[in-house]
Write a structure and sequence with these properties.
The chain is mainly alpha-helical and 168 residues long. It has one domain. The chain has a three-stranded mixed sheet. The longest helix is centred in the first third of the chain and has 21 residues. It is globular, with a radius of gyration of 16 Å.
């Protein structure tokens, strides 16, 4: 169960960080001084909720295993809307073939570098080693939600996922 007053915190943050997940307190921090639009906040909350999901599901070793961190960052970038076409156009990044994967990879590396003192080469290596498996792990959505409608469909699928096998 998620409690807004317990699991979410709005704070002023340094730099250009928009949010974070604190595994020690199971709390999502939203950087109120760096979030200016509702759509941006929605992406940040989704991104950090994916980290929270990974923390509960996969027992991620956030501080000692950079591959665990890399996997969660790949999943969060892939599933949160960070790499939608419209966001990439707003960043003046254009591409056709494989652009979504390139964006996910680049954002995962940037996120690792923002939270851990590792070299860029170490971050790239960790992302590359786990990329395929983590990029294709679409839980809890079952698909990459490309729009609000797609996200609603994914949520309905999630709600109904055990409906057909419950009586077997």
């Amino acid at each position: 169960t998620v409690f807004n007053d317990r699991h979410f915190s709005c704070e002023n943050c340094d730099g250009c960080v928009s949010g974070g997940f604190d595994s020690a307190t199971s709390q999502i921090v939203l950087c109120q001084n760096n979030i200016r639009q509702q759509s941006h906040m929605n992406r940040v909350v989704t991104h950090e909720l994916i980290h929270a999901f990974d923390h509960c599901r996969a027992h991620v070793d956030w501080f000692k295993n950079v591959k665990h961190l890399a996997c969660s960052e790949i999943r969060a970038a892939n599933l949160s809307g960070d790499c939608t076409l419209m966001n990439e156009i707003a960043r003046f990044k254009f591409g056709l073939k494989g652009h979504h994967q390139t964006c996910v990879r680049d954002r995962a590396i940037r996120s690792i570098l923002a939270v851990r003192k590792v070299s860029k080469e170490a971050a790239e290596k960790a992302v590359d080693e786990v990329f395929d498996a983590c990029f294709n792990d679409l839980e809890p959505f079952g698909r990459i939600p490309h729009s609000k409608e797609d996200a609603k469909r994914a949520y309905r699928d999630f709600q109904n996922r055990d409906r057909y096998t419950a009586n077997l």
